[in-house]
Amino acid sequence: MSSKMSWAxxxxxxxxxxxxxxxxxxxxxxxxxxxxxxxxxxxxSAETFxxxxxxxxxxxxxxxxxxxxxxxVHPQGVIISCRLDRTAGVIRLAAKAGCxxxxxxxxxxxxxxxxxxxxxxxxQQVACIPMIDYPAHPCIRAAKQVVQRGWLGEIVLANxxxxxxxxxxxxxxxxxxxxxxxxxWIGIHGLDFIYSTTGLTFxxxxxxxxxxxxxxxxxxxDHAVVLMELVNGAHMTLSVDYLRPAKAPSHGDDxxxxxxxxxxxxxxxxxxxxTLISDVEGGTKDLVSGSTNLQESDRSISSLAGKDSLRxxxxxxxxxxxxxxxxxxRGGRRPWQETQRGFLLTEAALAARDAADxxxxxxxxxxxxxxx
Length: 372
What we know:
The chain is an alpha/beta fold and 372 residues long. It is 31% helix and 26% strand. The chain has a 10-stranded mixed β-sheet with strand order 14-15-13-12-11-7-10-9-8-16. Strands 3-2-1-4-5-6 form a 6-stranded parallel β-sheet, sandwiched between helices. Helix 3 (87-96) links the parallel strand 4 and strand 5. The longest helix has 25 residues, at 334-358. It is globular.
């Protein structure tokens, strides 16, 4: 009998391949069944992801009906990677079946539905881990340690940017009722850059968005700008767009900046570089020497850009999902922390979209609304 955790895979859109690649390398989980997110849509089928993944059991059965698959197979967990308007319904089915969940983001397209999902997930005591894996990125990990060591002082201002090539987007991206908006789809990552590095949650949102260049997808915003209030009274700006040129060297251009009372940090996710200027005595010198153990496997300290500033080149990202699943098996806290993170970020992203839609300030629910 296999000791591997058994998972099912639902849907044919999104970032499931990233999850499967990590499970392939880990070896501690096995996908034992696949399903379509809707019996009437062959395009939204997990068969899309079957080929080339060792973690998918050879001959794993395919189901057109998610409910029947859950009743027949009884997996321990469900990976949900489907059309965005279907995500919440599949989460609900999986939670009610007592399955842990790894899911595409956002968790829901409406804040009232998100509140209902929270009740389902909490009642069943299942983890619901979002496919927002940036906490494993070396820039996020390094910046988090800089903040925790106090080298920036109190966070006063934060900026984030998320820019993508347009590429080829599904026709349904042009239908807001299905797509949900660019802020929930890609803006949620920029919000996470700040939340995962500072630990500061969001209390209010204001924003604007529009579509000036992607007329073939009329209800898909090609750009958005947001102002967020953070729980300590600081503020954050976020810009997102689908305007990165096709000739750009990478699909995305991700960047964030943290401004504190004692220092400033900037990070480029694509270049995997971090720049720090700090008034804290010895802060940059400790970082240069590596004596702070910025990362356990850190061999990345490269050069001192000036007497009081530092530019660090960082290694490749680490795996995100396997360590969480290992803790899930041990009864650790991290799966529940990641579950709360998914709800908080979805809440904030939906609030930002609603603020941009209405032109008004929208309050954002904090951790007290999503406890695990």
